[in-house]
Design a protein that fits this description.
transcription regulation; sequence-specific DNA binding; HTH_AraC; five-stranded parallel beta sheet; Rossmann fold; 5 strands; transcription; globular; Tscrpt_reg_AraC-type_HTH; alpha/beta
């Protein structure tokens, strides 16, 4: 369908004005351009995480670490990075369960520490619930769970419920190992410190969120340090 007809169909009455504006913006006339649908063939990747997955300090939407990694690996990305959230929300688990995916990655834990929403007693059951909900429809989809990146003072300072980031990493690794022992052969764990560790602290201006260069580094490292190792070695 010609673009002018598309414009008319959605309520643009002044076709001449639309045509002129379209040519001014694109450099081509609407009559020379036809809108259509293209097959969406790349495998789908869903990634879930916090503001570190949202990447607010990235230089552009295409330079977030998930976007960089998806482009390098040839994935169609669905990025579920929620600033201030990622508390293993059941409704997000159900949404992921219902979406098509060839790969699912979950970067969890840092906001649980920051907000104190789950304790050492309740965290593992909540993570099991998240993973098992996703597994209801994604039984054989590769599912990679990543623990928090380096977090400066959070490595040693307990939050109000007694968590430190090292303890969270231990709980996440133990949860993945438990489900692997129960037969989940498509589940893997990666330590976030292997992705961005203490040696990279200069890329964390406030001690937690990477800067634009940090997100570039995360995107560049994702394939080798996280995805390939996670697929090949599973736990630990």
């Amino acid at each position: 369908m010609p673009v002018q007809e598309v414009a008319a169909a959605v309520g643009y009455e002044e076709r001449r004005y639309f045509s002129e504006m379209f040519k001014k913006i694109t450099g081509v006339t609407p009559s020379d351009f036809r809108a259509g649908f293209h097959a969406d063939t790349p495998p789908r990747w869903i990634t879930y995480g916090s503001s570190i997955t949202q990447c607010v300090a990235a230089s552009s939407p295409s330079r977030t670490w998930p976007a960089i990694a998806a482009a390098a690996a040839g994935y169609n990305l669905t990025c579920l990075g929620y600033s201030g959230n990622c508390h293993l929300e059941p409704m997000v688990a159900r949404m992921i369960r219902g979406l098509p995916a060839a790969l699912i990655t979950l970067c969890v834990g840092v906001n649980v520490y920051g907000a104190g929403t789950l304790s050492p007693r309740t965290f593992q059951p909540a993570l099991i619930g998240l993973l098992e909900t996703i597994r209801e429809r994604h039984r054989d989809t590769p599912l990679l769970v990543i623990s928090p990146l380096y977090g400066s003072e959070r490595e040693t300072d307990e939050n109000k419920l007694g968590f430190t980031l090292p303890l969270l990493r231990k709980e996440i690794a133990a949860t993945v190992a438990l489900l692997q022992q129960r037969g989940d052969n498509h589940l893997a764990y990666r330590d976030g410190l292997e992705w961005l560790g203490a040696e990279d602290a200069a890329l964390l201006p406030a001690g937690l969120h990477p800067d634009a260069a940090g997100y570039e580094l995360l995107g560049a490292r994702f394939m080798e340090r996280i995805l390939r190792r996670g697929r090949g070695h599973g736990h630990g």
